[in-house]
Amino acid sequence: MEWIQQLINGISIGSIYALIALGYTMVYGIIKLINFAHGDVFMVGAFIGFYAIAKWEMNFFAALLLAMMLCAVFGVIIERVAYKRLRNSTRIAALITAIGVSLLIEYTVVFFRGAQLESYPKTIENKTITILGAQIGTHSILILSVSIGLMILLQFIVQKTKIGKAMRAVSHDADAARLMGINVDNTISATFAIGSSLAGAAGVIFGLYYTKIDPFMGVIPGLKAFIAAVLGGIGIIPGAMVGGMLLGVVETVVSALGFSLWRDAAAFIILILILVFKPEGIFGKNAREKV
Amino acid sequence: MLIVNDIDVYYGNIQALKGLSLEVNEGEIVTLIGANGAGKSTLLQTLSGLLKPKRGGIEYLGESIAGKPAQSIVKAGISHVPEGRRVFANMSVEENLDLGAYLRKDRDGIAKDLQHVYELFPRLYERRKQQSGTLSGGEQQMLAMGRAIMAKPKLLLLDEPSMGLAPLMVKNIFSIIETINQEGTTILLVEQNANMALSIANRAYVLETGKIVLSGTAKALQESEEVKAAYLGGL
């Protein structure tokens, strides 16, 4: 029953990628920007969670909520300060700015606390339970349930609420959305807020799972989440979820087969393959509009 | 109701409107005819707040709206059905109509207007759960108009509603425009199909390269030799 074990581990790691990938894909969907600072929002979320648990003695869920809220605000600040004024400039200018913002966040954190590792406090003990003969850690189950809960909440917001409908309208056609009376600036900010809060949540559960955090921890998971978003079809929300989980499973399988040194490479090989053979991603379609 | 006074509008570096003035009175259908690139769509985009005039004034119900953001113009009662329909193709017909009422909070009124839109366009009711990208061009035009009506406008701006539609569908759309007008909505209609537009309008303006070159009652323009030669196929 080892394969069930691996599958569940893979999915729970993948759900962390998926949470980060959602922010990439939502922001891309609405302003066509690959927000390379998104992985650093994830890192900031992990540190907020760390301080909340270790220094302010909050419990895990309170820390999760706090990290999500502060990251939401942080995401909006990044958008308003760095990206908003570039909305009508070339996409490459915005992309370079995003890389700049990413470095700024990383080195600001280093400036204030140094680059050393931090060990995440054990707020919730990791027990092993046996289901159908498979040994599964409670952390994996916790990560999986938190991620899936957040994804359901996100789907509800995007599909059913007014702001969700506004987000979909703006991502499809910003000028037409303006004609409906939708405030496009506020809608873009809301998208950053939601995407960043998901990254914040991912940071806290990443800390719980991997126990080590540092100011550059966002780089690799950020890139992998970007791959997950491309794999699922960038701009498509269910695509990011599936892409993230798929990537997690592939990585776990590669490790389980004894190629754990190749784990990171596997993700990039997937990126190359998808760009060569199906650049629009699993869920993407070459939508042609009727006039 | 609407007074446009001597506006200049630039589209990038190109001056699209040059000292344009016009007036729309409450209850009228006013049409603006002109060739491709004359500046018709630019004018509508300026009225609905997507573009800002460099110079000149726009007064609506006694208040200046020049340069105001689009959402406050929608709120004030001007709805714009853009050229090419611009429906939200990835959403259902009903979701599109809901978005039309985005700024409204009166649930009962919204439900009533939705009913009314379905009465005006029974086809939309049949397809209410369908993705709007799968509709035909005529149905998308109906949807774009229904979506604009959901905002409960006092003034409806229509940009080329006949574009790309079969003659029968054009007739259908124009008769619905007349119905909407009879129900009390003032209409500013931009058209290349001058014949159709003049047949339902009270007054008309002729626009050429950003300037009004002719204006008058629709009837007078229909009989004017210049208009006949340039816009009515020289009949």
Protein architecture, described:
The complex is a heterodimer of chains A (291) and B (235). With 291 residues, chain A is mainly alpha-helical. Chain A has a single domain (2-277), classed as ABC transporter involved in vitamin B12 uptake, BtuC, CATH 1.10.3470. In chain A, 72% of the residues lie in helices and 4% in strands. Chain A is built from eleven helices and four strands. In chain A, the strands form two sheets. Chain A has a two-stranded antiparallel ribbon. The mean pLDDT of chain A is 92. In chain B, the strands form two sheets. A six-stranded mixed sheet of chain B has the order 6-7-8-3-9-10, sandwiched between helices. With 235 residues, chain B is an alpha/beta fold. Chain B has ten helices and ten strands. The mean pLDDT of chain B is 93. In chain B, strand 7, helix 7 and strand 8 form a beta-alpha-beta unit. Chains A and B meet through helix 6 and helix 7 of A and helix 2, helix 3 and helix 6 of B. Chain B: It comes from Metalysinibacillus jejuensis.
What is the number of beta strands of chain A?
4
Q: For the record, what is the CATH homologous superfamily label of chain B?
A: P-loop containing nucleotide triphosphate hydrolases
Query: N-to-C terminal Cα separation of chain B, in Å?
Result: 34 Å
Overall structural class of chain B, as computed from helix and strand content, comes to: alpha/beta
Number of H- or I-type helical stretches of chain A: 11
Q: Characterize the largest beta sheet of chain A: strand count, sense, and whether it forms a barrel.
A: 2 strands, antiparallel
| Biggest interface, residues from each chain | A-B, 20 and 32 residues
- Total helices of chain B: the number is 10
CATH architecture of chain A: Orthogonal Bundle
Count of separate structural domains of chain B: 1
